[in-house]
Amino acid sequence: MRVFGVTGWKNAGKTGLMERLVAEITGRGFSVSTVKHAHHSFDVDQPGRDSYRHRAAGANEVLLASGQRVALIQELRGAEEPRLSDLLARLSPVDLVLIEGYKREAHPKIEAFRQEPGNALIATGNDTIRAVASDVPLSLDRPVFDLNDTAAIADFILHEVGL
After folding, report:
1. pLDDT tens across 63-100, in order?
2. Distances in Å between the alpha carbon of 7 and those of 10, 25, 26, 129, 161?
3. In the chain, what are the domain boundaries?
4. Mean pLDDT of 137-148
5. Please, which residues have CB within 8 angstroms of residue 24's CB and are 6 or more apart in sequence?
6. Which of 9, 103, 127, 147 ranks highest by number of CB atoms within 10 Å?
7. 8 A C-beta contact, residue 98 and residue 88
8. pLDDT in tens, 102-138
């Protein structure tokens, strides 16, 4: 499976870039799935809903299915967070999986960078970051794209993964 990541610090523009890349790349006829890492607890369910009540009652997994989508909610209940490779193995085959976050994993990535938050570049100490998408000009040893030049960033990613 071809994978490419979008990484960066909080408020760097990762999610917006991911959203634009998914639209751009699927618009070119490729199938895309995404994986998003969260550093905090999250809930995709709503209190009071039947599926939430199933989980709250102690179910390890709740599978929601309708004519529009399927969602599997798994409670770790103290178990370790699954490895990225295990999560990727659960996905159905697609042309490309875009991964948001997971900055310490070995897959190739582009770093989203905005000057305003004042964070240091991750790319300077991370060889898995193949390029940077920035809102300011940067002088680096790898390609730097305008953060809003989605087409050029998509071209770069597709070339990097061989599509």
Report:
1. 889 999 988 989 898 899 999 999 999 999 999 999 99
2. 9, 18, 20, 8, 17
3. 3-40+81-161
4. 97
5. 150, 151, 154
6. 147
7. no
8. 999 999 999 999 999 999 999 999 999 999 999 999 9
Name the packing angle between helices 150-161 and 14-27 (round to 10°): 70
Map residue 63 onto helix, strand or coil.
Answer: strand
Partnered with residue 117 across adjacent β-strands are: none
Average pLDDT over residues 130-148: 97
The 10 Å Cβ neighbour count of residue 4 is 21
Indicate the class that CATH gives domain 3-40+81-161: alpha beta
Interatomic CA distance for residues 82 and 64, integer angstroms: 21
Rounded to a whole number of angstroms, the CA Rg of the chain reads 18
- Do residues 133 and 111 make contact, with C-beta atoms less than 8 angstroms apart? yes
Pairing between β-strand 3-7 and β-strand 96-100 as defined by DSSP bridges: parallel
- Type of residue found at 58: G
What are the backbone angles phi and psi of residue 78, rounded to the nearest 5°? 95, -10
Q: What is the pLDDT of residue 45?
A: 79
Structure tokens at 71: 């969602």
pTM of the model: 0.91
Q: Would you state the structure tokens that stand for residue 33, as one six-digit string?
A: 């799935």
CA distance 123 to 96: 22
